[in-house]
Design goal:
Blueprint (H helix, E strand, L loop, with lengths): L1 E4 L3 E3 L5 E8 L7 E7 L5 E8 L4 E4 L7 E6 L4 E6 L8 E9 L3 E5 L3 E5 L2
Parallel strand pairs: 2-11
Antiparallel strand pairs: 1-3, 3-8, 4-5, 4-9, 5-6, 7-8, 9-10, 9-11
């Protein structure tokens, strides 16, 4: 199993960013993808999840309205898009495969998003 994420991004405040997570080594629609971020010096923060089989999503309350999860089953790729970026969104963004009743077992290496003017 591999989750390969897109490269680092630099954005101005107010802009948007879209991070990708390409899955391989398993059937993409068999498992949920979670998104987690870690700001500098902070702990892990769960953002939400998407079920690629039907596109169903769940968002942490903090991110509702500003974050969108999507999944392209033709390329086995999940995406997170964050809009209206602010400096506090500077973080490493991770995707992870979520197994029901188990948790997150495989993680991407992370994508650094820096928000700075």
């Amino acid at each position: 199993v591999q989750l390969v994420q897109s490269g680092a991004e630099l954005r101005n405040p107010g802009a948007s960013v879209k991070v990708s997570c390409k899955a391989s080594g398993y059937t993409f629609t068999d498992n949920i993808i979670d998104w987690v971020r870690q700001a500098p010096g902070q702990g892990l923060e769960w953002m939400g999840r998407i079920d690629p089989v039907d596109g169903g999503t769940k968002y942490a309350q903090k991110f509702q309205g500003r974050v969108t999860f999507t999944a392209d089953t033709s390329t086995s790729t999940a995406y997170v898009e964050l809009s209206s970026l602010r400096s506090e969104d500077t973080a490493v963004y991770y995707c992870a495969r979520y197994i029901v009743n188990y948790g997150m077992d495989y993680w991407g290496k992370g994508t650094l998003v820096t928000v700075s003017s």
